[in-house]
TrEMBL record:
This is Uncharacterized protein. The lineage of its organism: Bacteria, Pseudomonadati, Pseudomonadota, Gammaproteobacteria, Alteromonadales. It comes from Pseudoalteromonas luteoviolacea S4060-1.
Length: 100
């Protein structure tokens, strides 16, 4: 896991390993390092969710909108329910735990 951008004691760093030991060596205290690692974990999970939504649930939401516009209300409801179910599955697959 990588922290893309971080400023420590006035110095800007890019692509820093997101582990507490490295961040402490770079000048953060233990609490600050843990918070940065947590932020990196949350960002990673959110990126994974975004990708999964795009590939899995969004097409079904679009299908539901299309079917509703075409008058297929039953088909729209089925597609929408599948999409909502996929969103819940994605959230459980990529949990966001904020330990800050």
């Amino acid at each position: 896991m990588i922290i893309r951008n971080i400023t420590i004691k006035g110095h800007d760093y890019i692509n820093v390993p997101a582990n507490t030991e490295t961040l402490i060596e770079m000048g953060l205290n233990e609490q600050e390092a843990a918070a940065e690692v947590n932020k990196a974990k949350v960002a990673l999970a959110m990126e994974a969710r975004k990708r999964a939504y795009h590939l899995e649930s969004d097409p079904l939401f679009i299908e539901a909108i299309r079917k509703e516009a075409m008058g297929d209300l039953d088909g729209a409801a089925v597609a929408r329910n599948l999409a909502v179910s996929l969103v819940e599955q994605i959230k459980s697959r990529y949990p966001v735990v904020d330990n800050a």
